[in-house]
Design a protein that fits this description.
- The complex is a heterodimer of chains A (257) and B (621).
- With 257 residues, chain A is an alpha+beta fold.
- Helix content of chain A is 20%, strand content 32%.
- Chain B is globular, with a radius of gyration of 25 Å.
- The chains are: A alpha+beta (257), B alpha/beta (621).
- At the A-B interface, helix 1 of A face helix 1 and helix 9 of B.
- The structure holds iron/sulfur cluster (2 copies).
- One iron/sulfur cluster binds next to loops of chain B.
């Protein structure tokens, strides 16, 4: 039986890399007595995969882990058992059975949305609202240089930006699509962060997955380039909201199977 | 939300930030303001190494069982973070509550190998605790050393307020009680506490002993400065391992630790008495846990951690009285749970090969022999009971069972070693390779057999019969390695052999630390202050800086390494009463020179003196 687990990643846990997080979940499954299915071979492994690895330092309120189990479990009992094995910074939000034919989340991932902000404050002389209008509210290509290990290529990212909005930290709810949970508990508000209500915050809805993977960093870099301003990737705060697959009816949250 | 000691900016810069965030599953959470004693437990090496250490987990469990105590962990920040902490003046902190170490009552540092000595200073320095114990202020934590290196604590004596000599499960509670009482009654002062602590058996307070030297540099006397302080400090030993605390809920790291599995300690000590082996002496007598206890531990620990692997911990697992029963149990239990089993330190014989074929992939794994010396004469000298026949029989069975990879561990530079002994290393390996080609028909071979020889250079350790032996200069070690390497190339089956040897200069430094006296501390401090730390990590080891440090401090390293000591000499560690009689060590040293073997504790008691602890193997045979 295939199961999709939705979870959050925040607080200190955001510094745990995705391979370590995978190992954390493998152990949690054992502790919670989830009847995992195993691969064949001399050293069998639990059948388990993430929709998309989350970079170190990024928070999220919509991560997905697909697993296979061998015996039916009551979803709420399973969630309770798993949450008892979590640590501060990871919470299981749902445990949903998938069709046996369903593609796993990694294969079906088509888009993701994010909140983006500036961790340690921003250059007040820059008018991000104006820049945003010139960047996104106009037609025309947004050319960037996409570097991979092997090559560099020019690419128009305009079609890969499904939506982009600008607002402020204080009114971040206005940036979010309807029915989204409040991101505040998952954002890092600790010392050293200058999250002021008046600070600028962006909402980005970007294609994601194996073919047209667009990272929020690249969009923000392009925006700064357009403004002729320096871009400091280390100052960029990113919070993932949700992940989606493409259906005939449009993009649908991975939480809906 | 827990507040971290390091800012996001720093955590995003350093390698493996998860080393520094704490909050691992099973880490203990207490309200620091609700306890009387805050204890910071340190392994002075990187997180992944420190987290793999069983001893710390035992003490962590032991201390945190006390309601009045909160024990937290701290490890050496990796050089990338070290540089940032120095630059930005960030004090070293505990993982659990992310509190500066300076605010703790105690800082306990476990000393597992000599090459971590500069990291002790790193930890003290980053914690802003004065490096020299006698410079410490009333408010500084009491710095305690423990672990195998305390069987000669003298080279680092200046850096510690006290050493705990022996197994932690015994008198630590007395020490903590004393501290709490003195604090509560208002009688606490650093000096008064240390004086009282020195009266607890097993506690050594170096500042309360005065050392004088002869003109030739050897020790003249080693005496307590107060009448009530004992001249001899007695090693503390747990006799009933079945009922002593064990970490049923070990902390489970996020980062992959070196020991990323459940560790089941099956026994302490070793019956074999190899003459080079310090562990085989200082953990005497051999004491076992019962099978029932181990079965219960294994299951509980697997349940509490979720690890997918379990490993046995002991010096010589094959000697456990019911290894068969234990292994059968584990195989059965782990098969159901899909848990891997790792079985280090098993002697190669039909039993262990049968077990290994069940728990590992024969095609990928190798079998390991540690004869430690190539020739039978040398093996007699070191009292390694493994004969060539044992090796050949084991290897043949392994080859028949499908293995074709063999690892050999040897030592070079052993007392009395001659060129013929060195040459025997590749010659023995060649005979094993030949055995493979004789045993396994061509059509059943998966390629060549692969025989790997590794040699380390022998370092004489205190409390062994070789504690009087001399060492050699780095060039001499390398010359010996070259003899092995050249002889290997002459062998018929040389294409099946490969050879690796250890760094020679590290060996020499380890030798100085192992048998050094109090005067060495100056050089360790000098080296640290001139950039040495993480000496156990090849990329950070700078022999030239060490030579400079010794020169600057007026220390002649050869005094510590190149001299065979007279058995009458007062040795820096003689003030410890480990339970091992000096006459026994002297006799063993003589037997070694005559290449005569001594039977192991199961065969016959050799009267080493440890019977006085009142239990273990000494009362079983
Ligand atoms: S078998 Fe020998 S080398 Fe191994 S632990 Fe025992 S005494 Fe030491
Ligand atoms: S007293 Fe005898 S049996 Fe006991 S440890 Fe010593 S040699 Fe072995």
């Amino acid at each position: 039986m295939k199961v999709r687990i939705r979870f959050t990643k925040s607080d200190a846990l955001r510094y745990v890399g995705h391979l370590d997080l995978l190992r954390f979940f493998q152990k949690a499954m054992r502790r919670a007595h989830v009847p995992m299915a195993f691969s064949e071979g001399f050293h069998p492994h639990q059948i388990m995969s993430f929709a998309s690895p989350l970079g170190v330092g990024i928070t999220s309120q919509g991560e997905y882990l697909d697993i296979e189990i061998t015996e039916q479990m009551d979803p709420s009992a399973a969630m309770e058992a798993l949450n008892a094995q979590m640590v501060e910074g990871v919470t299981i939000q749902s445990f949903t059975y998938l069709d046996d034919q369903a593609k796993n989340s990694m294969a079906s991932l088509a888009a993701a949305d994010y909140l983006v902000y500036f961790k340690r404050g921003l250059d007040k002389s820059l008018d991000y609202v104006d820049a945003y209008t010139q960047f996104y509210q106009t037609d025309g290509a947004i050319m960037v240089t996409k570097k991979t290990k092997k090559s560099e290529r020019e690419l128009d990212i305009r079609p890969l930006i499904l939506d982009m909005k600008v607002g402020t930290v204080g009114s971040m709810q206005d940036l979010l699509p309807a029915e989204y949970a409040d991101p505040t508990p998952y954002l890092p508000w600790e010392d050293g962060f200058c999250l002021n209500d008046s600070d600028v915050m962006f909402y980005l809805f970007l294609t994601s997955g194996s073919t047209d993977n667009l990272k929020p960093e690249l969009v923000m870099e392009a925006l700064h380039q357009k403004m002729g301003a320096d871009f400091d990737a280390a100052n960029l705060g990113i919070h993932r909201l949700d992940m989606f697959r493409a259906t005939e009816a449009g993009y649908q949250s991975l939480s809906k199977g | 939300m827990r507040k971290l000691a390091l800012s996001d900016e720093i955590l995003m810069q350093v390698d493996k930030a998860a080393r520094y965030i704490g909050n691992e599953f099973n880490s203990v959470k207490k309200d620091p303001s609700s306890v009387d004693i805050r204890f910071a437990m340190c392994f002075p090496d990187v997180y992944e190494i420190g987290m793999s250490h069983l001893g710390i987990q035992i003490l962590y469990e032991l201390f945190n069982r006390r309601e009045d105590t909160y024990c937290e962990r701290v490890y050496s920040p990796w050089p990338d973070l070290h540089a940032i902490m120095k630059e930005e003046q960030i004090p070293l902190f505990s993982l659990e509550s992310q509190t500066p170490i300076q605010e703790f009552d105690f800082l306990g540092i476990t000393l597992q190998y000599e090459m971590c000595y500069t990291n002790i200073l790193q930890v003290l320095d980053l914690s802003r605790i004065p490096l020299i114990a006698t410079d410490r202020r009333e408010s500084d934590p009491i710095v305690i050393g423990g672990g195998p290196c305390v069987y000669n604590p003298e080279p680092i004596a200046d850096f510690f307020d006290l050493f705990y000599i022996g197994e932690g499960e015994t008198v630590y509670s007395q020490l903590l009680d004393l501290y709490k009482e003195m604090k509560a009654s208002g009688t606490y002062a650093r000096a008064a506490f240390l004086h009282q602590a020195a009266l607890i058996p097993g506690i050594y307070v170096p500042s309360l002993y005065e050392v004088t030297y002869q003109e030739d540099g050897t020790l003249a006397s080693f005496t307590p400065i107060y009448e009530d302080v004992p001249a001899q400090v007695k090693r503390q030993v747990v006799m009933d391992l079945d009922h002593s605390p064990y970490p049923m809920k070990p902390v489970v790291p996020y980062v992959r630790a070196t020991q990323d599995r459940v560790v089941l300690e099956i026994q302490r000590g070793c019956i074999r008495g190899c003459r080079f082996c310090q562990a085989g002496m200082i953990y005497r007598p051999n004491r076992e846990k019962s099978l029932e206890v181990l079965e219960g531990y294994a299951i509980q620990m697997l349940e509490n951690t979720g690890y997918d692997e379990i490993s046995l911990s002991s010096l010589s697992s094959s000697d456990y009285h019911n290894i068969q029963g234990l292994v059968d149990f584990l195989i059965e239990e782990c098969k159901q749970r899909k848990i891997n089993i790792s079985l280090p330190s098993l002697r190669i014989d039909s039993f262990s090969l049968d077990v290994m074929s069940k728990v590992q992939d024969v095609n990928k794994s190798s079998i390991t022999f540690a004869p430690e010396a190539g020739s039978q004469r040398m093996r007699n000298t070191i009292n390694k009971g493994l004969t060539e026949e044992d090796i050949m029989n084991g290897a043949r069975l392994a080859f028949e069972g499908g293995w074709n990879k063999v690892k050999f561990y040897f030592m070079l530079g052993l007392p009395g070693e001659e060129e013929a002994d060195m040459r025997e290393i590749p010659e023995l390996s060649n005979r094993v390779a030949a055995l493979y080609y004789d045993t396994v028909p061509k059509e059943q071979r998966h390629g060549k057999c692969q025989i790997t020889m590794s040699t380390s250079f022998f370092v004489p350790k205190p409390w062994t019969p070789f504690q009087w032996a001399r060492m050699y200069p780095p060039e001499e070690y390398l010359r010996r390695a070259k003899i092995v390497n050249d002889t290997m190339k002459e062998q018929l089956n040389h294409k099946s052999l490969s050879y690796q040897w250890h760094q020679a200069d590290v060996t020499v430094l380890e030798g100085i630390f192992a048998r050094g006296d109090r005067r060495i501390a100056k050089a360790i401090q000098y080296a640290y202050e001139h950039g040495c730390f993480f000496d156990a990590w090849g990329e950070y080891f700078h022999y030239d800086k060490w030579l400079e440090a010794f020169a600057a401090c007026g220390i002649d390293p050869d005094f510590y390494t190149m001299r065979e000591r007279d058995i009458e000499e007062l040795l820096p560690w003689d003030f410890i009463d480990t339970g091992i009689r000096r006459e026994f060590l002297v006799h063993e040293w003589e037997q070694a020179k005559a290449a005569v073997v001594t039977p192991n504790c199961k065969m016959r008691c050799s009267g080493c003196g440890c019977k006085s602890f009142g239990g273990g193997i000494c009362y079983e045979s």
